[in-house]
Amino acid sequence: VVDSRLQYFKPHATKIEKTFAEEISSGLGTNSKSIHPKFFYDKKGSELFEKICSVPEYYPTRTEISILKKLQSELSSYLDEDFRLVELGSGSSTKTRLILDFLTSQKTLEYFPIDISEILTESSEELLNDYQNLTITGIIDTYEGGLEFLKTYDDKSNLIIFLGSSFGNFSPIDGYKFLEKVYATMKPGDLFLIGLDLVKDKTILESAYNDSEGVTAKFNLNVLSRINDELDADFNLQNFSHHAIYNEKDQRIEMYLKSLVDQSIIISKSDLELKLQKDELIHTEYSHKYRLSQIHDLLDDVGFELKHTWLDDKKYFSLTLVSK
Ligand code: AVJ
């Protein structure tokens, strides 16, 4: 029964796999070493990220949920009778439920999750069980790959949602280019809802990325386990520590893996012998924070028409709705 309501596409599966070995090779084979944050999300990493979302210090998830609950009723006034809900980086689809909950009036609803992680298949099956009027087309791919794929569907209007401040991973230049891609994918009348974390006190920001249970540390270190497993490498996780600081000038959390000793690591499938000195850093993530005016200017520059911004009482987090 469920099967007829569910289909998956992996438009660039082989390309993604090849990219992993290559991107690790080019990211670690230079002087300033880095691992792209999209590689955090293997099965274990996606589970750890879900755990981060409920540690007390990590305010973004629960704050965004509180805003989503407020905007539910207001959002419907912007929507067509029949539209497709597209989600970039859907993950566990927990927050999606808050949007689906108030769309039940629609006879059938098409949900189009795009995620790089296989976690998408599990969350899609759970959604189908809980929402009888839902059909799902799941895309396991990068955001860009998913957006390309979406272009081949031009029958109804889209509400594209991009929650959780995942956009914060982009550098300003890449972020701008990404928004241009989203804009180019949209048809006139389509809507885009983006959740962005706001600039705030440094101590609040730094504790959110240095939780006392050490879940964020595990999440960060897990990428090394993933490289061990998938690229035949011999990282010893004991020789690394989690390091996360807020860079006020660039308005971003910077996350690193710090080498605790002089060491040499073999990454077979990337053809790389990685030499690290004691205290050397591998950069793993940027998480940019924004001021409201910067969000509005950015979206405006890309060409979007601003519809509404919702905030929580403490002004920790924002959700902004724009149209083309
Ligand atoms: C999924 C990119 C939004 O930047 O807050 C959480 C990832 N990294 N804790 C973020 C993350 C460490 C998260 N995003």
Can you describe this structure?
The protein is an alpha/beta fold and 324 residues long. Helices cover 36% and strands 26% of the residues. The strands form three sheets. An eight-stranded mixed beta sheet has the order 1-4-3-2-5-6-13-12, sandwiched between helices. A three-stranded antiparallel beta sheet has the order 7-8-11. It has a two-stranded antiparallel sheet with strand order 9-10. The longest helix has 17 residues, at 59-75. Bound molecules: N,N,N-trimethyl-histidine. N,N,N-trimethyl-histidine binds at residues 52, 60, 164-166, 168-169, 209, 216, 285, 287.
Number of strands: 13
- CA radius of gyration is 20 Å
Attached small molecules = N,N,N-trimethyl-histidine
Spatial shape: globular
Output mean pLDDT.
94
* Distance, first to last CA: 37 Å
